[in-house]
Design goal:
about 375 residues; alpha+beta; Aminopeptidase; Alpha-Beta Plaits; 2 domains; 8-stranded mixed β-sheet; elongated; binds the ligand CC(=O)N[C@@H](CCC[C@H](N)C(=O)O)C(=O)O; AcetylDAP_deacetylase
Length: about 375
């Protein structure tokens, strides 16, 4: 099985696609699922996603397991033989491993009927614009509504053979952040005749650092990161426009509204001081990943009977739209150690593939404990 898992992971790794564009990925998954024994399976598609229900022999409850399926707009720099064949796209967040583990667990359930019903959710667009919320709202899960749900995320900093989780908040509330600055361009030698958006956008980035330091309660945690800054065309021209792209992260859902309020205030102030217009767009917003204590405890007990080691996880400022599923259905998310020297969203992320077998073991152990 280990060789098969590695082959699947490499196949999927070659074809990363962005949110709601996962056509090749969906076709690959459907082909694979179609080859499995079909006796206990029912398959539905939703946009580029797939939902598969396995009928259990007892079937007194339904456990859902969710994997995300999209890649990131990152150019891979691993130099691996099986590196991404899609220019500027990479599975740099481990969704290729997440999908492979889901297929491994589904294969076992299709061959050896589990006691309880299991719903496998292959969800698009986790990195953006968010697939979990519209998937729930679409009603596709209505007839197969789970009693509980769980998911995993690879953890580059944890050793292979380790899983990690915690009761309560695991991942933060997030909001994307896009700012478009509009001023007046002109000759570099005549700044007084222009409204320079390189200066306005840089000032915004610098001032913004004060929001977490000075506007939030020090006992609350938040992060505002600008990951992309774009402006200008040539060295001797003043830029008429600028664009900032970033993300906001907070540990509680209310704090995110406060951060947005301060961003808006600073933008209005800059509009006056730089005589420009600033448009703000918050893109997609994810609700916190909040783990159910009873389920985490059950998972910890299940893991103690496997070859894996359980570690208590600290809360993290990462985001996950799986939080929307946990808002509706009790459950949990856990980290799976993959021991990569490069972290999530890095162009050289290289998870240890031995983690695939451990992932399948953990998922099946939890499915079969019920
Ligand atoms: C686990 C992980 O890395 N998740 C992403 C989720 C993206 C949320 C959204 N696009 C945003 O940037 O706010 C993360 O960046 O944490």
């Amino acid at each position: 099985m280990e060789d098969t898992l590695i082959q699947i992971r490499r196949d999927l790794h070659r074809i990363p696609e962005l949110g709601f564009q996962e056509e090749k990925t969906q076709a690959y998954l459907l082909d694979y699922i179609g080859e499995l024994p079909q006796e206990y399976l029912e398959i539905k598609t939703w946009r580029t996603g797939i939902v598969v229900r396995v009928t259990g022999s007892v079937g007194s409850k339904t456990i859902a397991y969710r994997t995300d399926i999209d890649g990131l707009p990152i150019t891979e720099a691993t130099g691996l033989l099986y590196q991404s064949e899609h220019n500027g796209r990479m599975h740099a967040c481990g969704h290729d491993l997440h999908m492979t583990i889901a297929l491994g667990a589904l294969t076992a359930c299709a061959k050896d009927q589990p006691a309880q019903n299991v719903v496998f959710i292959f969800q698009p667009a986790e990195e953006g614009p968010g697939g979990a919320l519209p998937l729930i709202q679409s009603g596709i899960l209505k007839e197969w509504w789970p009693d509980e749900i769980f998911a995993l995320h690879i953890a580059p900093e944890l050793p292979v053979g380790t899983v990690s989780s915690r009761t309560g908040l695991l991942f933060a509330n997030t909001s994307e952040l896009f700012l478009d600055f509009k001023g007046k361009g002109g000759h570099a030698a005549y700044p007084h005749l222009t409204k320079d958006m390189v200066v306005a956008a840089s000032t915004f980035v610098t001032n913004m650092q004060g929001i977490v330091a000075r506007n939030l309660d020090p006992l609350q945690s938040a992060v505002i990161t600008i990951g992309k800054m774009e402006s200008g065309f040539v060295q001797n021209t003043i830029a008429e426009t600028a664009r900032l792209e970033g993300t906001i992260r907070t540990m509680d859902p209310e704090a995110i509204a406060l951060v947005k309020q301060h961003i808006e205030q600073q933008a209005r102030g800059l509009e006056i001081s730089h005589n420009c217009q600033i448009e703000i767009d918050y893109g997609s917003n994810y609700y916190q990943v909040y783990n159910d204590g009873t389920k985490v405890e059950a998972f910890r007990e299940v893991i103690a009977k496997t070859s894996l080691t359980y570690k208590e996880a600290p809360p993290a400022m990462t985001g996950e739209d799986f939080g929307y599923m946990l808002k509706e259905i009790p459950g949990f998310m856990f980290w799976l150690g993959v021991d990569s020297p490069y972290g999530l969203h890095h162009s050289k992320l290289q998870p240890d593939e031995k983690a695939l077998g451990h992932g399948v073991e953990a998922v099946l152990a939890y499915i079969n404990h019920a």
